[in-house]
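Lab meeting, item 3. Inverse folding demo.
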């Protein structure tokens, strides 16, 4: 619930950021903003080098066994490498920014990159320090800094850029300030004892190259996962215009909203199953994975259906330039659903030290996406990018689910999951037919506030009807019932 609250805040803030840029600065600026941020995220993979996941892989066991020496060595290695690599990469990008901009045929990209790349050392250190925090199965700090502080500061900055009529090319300074603020916040948290296990000075004296050797496999996987996530934006930036990059990313920001539930689970899921595997509690891991997939499927279907049916209304919130066919949103949402229906499959395989399998899956996934992007984007533009994106996610997740069953006989799918899929399909068709015949929203109102209220009302009613079906058909477990009861009791007690 803590992670969901944080992720929900982040999703809302990012939606407001992109819609504000789209409305006041236009699709072209949003395209440059998205493209430069994608390049930044790619470069950040080299500076973090998989150390966030490496910390989550080893630190829980060191904490469990109270092995302070190895914990300090792990921390020191991550901080030293992160500082050195991030400063080096930032220096190189500052020197080659014109060449990068020319590659994407976007001369204005130069100033965007030069501003944002200055944030790389702060971003890298923040990720490493948050990795240490989550290794203690404490998600509060990460939820606060990464999901609330960073996007909210960025949103405030965007509003100030518009209000103060600062030139568009300085819009990336908002992200620079947000990353610097995030690092400051986590250092303040350390000062006030929120990271009592983090010994910065003793750790900085330690270094163990074995952790970097382990991180190589994780790093390769993070590179491949990045390409799965951002390849469509980069390929669209190469083959198409900045404006279409902006329109596509606006649609993508809406389509990935249902994934908020998966990202909320992932942060605490990985260190938890790492500890459980270390304690030889495989059955608990299998049950946890099965429950996560079932709950993700049941919770996200109504939101997925909603984003497809009301794609026109949702995209109108970004401005008049943002018009897309419903089929584009349908393709993007199907990709998101394939991701949710397999649950945290990548983290589960990673906890089993199956990084090579993850790499192979990613290579197959990316290869299919590259081929489709090269063929389809020049012909059908953003729809081609969406097909490549959805295909990549489907291939990646399907292979992972098959391999997990082959290795450990783990499968999240049972009668209740299959019944949920059937009910969800029927629900989606019925919802679409009702909207088509009765036009529940009425019209795309000139008042955005009124439109948002109508969309919210339809979403809430849709959720209640769907959850009613789940309860009526008994597609829930006793654990679900106990969990809901516990949450209600806590909320009632706090109230």
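The presenter then showed the designed sequence:
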């Amino acid at each position: 619930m803590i992670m969901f609250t944080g992720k929900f805040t982040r999703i809302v803030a990012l939606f407001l950021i992109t819609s504000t840029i789209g409305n006041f600065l236009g699709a072209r600026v949003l395209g440059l903003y998205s493209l430069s941020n994608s390049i930044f995220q790619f470069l950040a993979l080299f500076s973090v080098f998989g150390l966030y996941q490496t910390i989550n892989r080893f630190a829980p066991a060191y904490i469990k066994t109270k092995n302070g020496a190895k914990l300090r060595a792990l921390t020191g290695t991550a901080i030293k490498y992160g500082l050195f690599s991030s400063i080096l990469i930032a220096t190189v990008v500052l020197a080659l920014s014109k060449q990068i901009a020319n590659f994407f045929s976007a001369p204005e990209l130069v100033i965007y990159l030069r501003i944002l790349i200055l944030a790389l050392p702060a971003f890298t250190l923040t990720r490493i320090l948050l990795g240490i925090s989550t290794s203690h199965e404490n998600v509060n700090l990460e939820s606060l800094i990464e999901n609330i502080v960073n996007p909210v500061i960025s949103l405030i900055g965007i509003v100030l850029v518009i209000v103060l009529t600062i030139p568009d090319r300085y819009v990336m300074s908002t992200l620079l300030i947000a990353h610097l603020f995030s690092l400051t916040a986590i250092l303040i948290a350390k000062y006030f004892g929120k990271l009592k296990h983090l010994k910065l000075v003793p750790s900085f004296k330690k270094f163990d190259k074995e952790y970097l050797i382990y991180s190589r496999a994780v790093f390769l996987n993070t590179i491949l996962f990045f390409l799965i996530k951002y390849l469509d934006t980069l390929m669209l930036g190469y083959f198409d215009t900045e404006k279409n990059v902006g329109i596509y990313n606006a649609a993508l920001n809406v389509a990935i909203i249902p994934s908020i539930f998966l990202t909320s689970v992932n942060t605490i899921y990985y260190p938890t199953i790492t500890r459980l595997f270390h304690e030889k509690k495989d059955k608990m891991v299998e049950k946890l994975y099965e429950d996560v997939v079932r709950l993700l499927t049941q919770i996200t279907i109504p939101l997925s259906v909603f984003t497809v049916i009301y794609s026109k209304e949702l995209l109108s919130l970004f401005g008049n330039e943002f018009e897309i066919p419903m089929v584009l949103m349908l393709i993007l949402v199907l990709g998101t659903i394939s991701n949710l229906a397999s649950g945290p499959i990548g983290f589960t395989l990673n906890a089993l030290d199956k990084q090579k399998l993850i790499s192979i899956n990613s290579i197959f996934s990316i290869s299919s996406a590259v081929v489709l992007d090269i063929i389809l984007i020049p012909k059908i533009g953003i729809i081609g990018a969406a097909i490549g994106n959805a295909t990549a996610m489907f291939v990646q997740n399907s292979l992972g689910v098959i391999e997990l069953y082959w290795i450990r006989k783990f499968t999240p799918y049972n009668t209740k999951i299959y019944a949920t899929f059937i009910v969800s399909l029927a629900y989606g068709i019925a919802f679409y037919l009702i909207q088509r015949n009765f036009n529940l929203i009425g019209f795309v109102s000139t008042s955005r506030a009124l439109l948002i209220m109508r969309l919210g009302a339809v979403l809430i009613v849709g959720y209640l009807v769907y959850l009613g079906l789940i309860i009526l058909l008994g597609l829930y477990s006793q654990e679900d019932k106990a969990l809901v009861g516990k949450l209600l009791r806590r909320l009632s007690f706090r109230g």
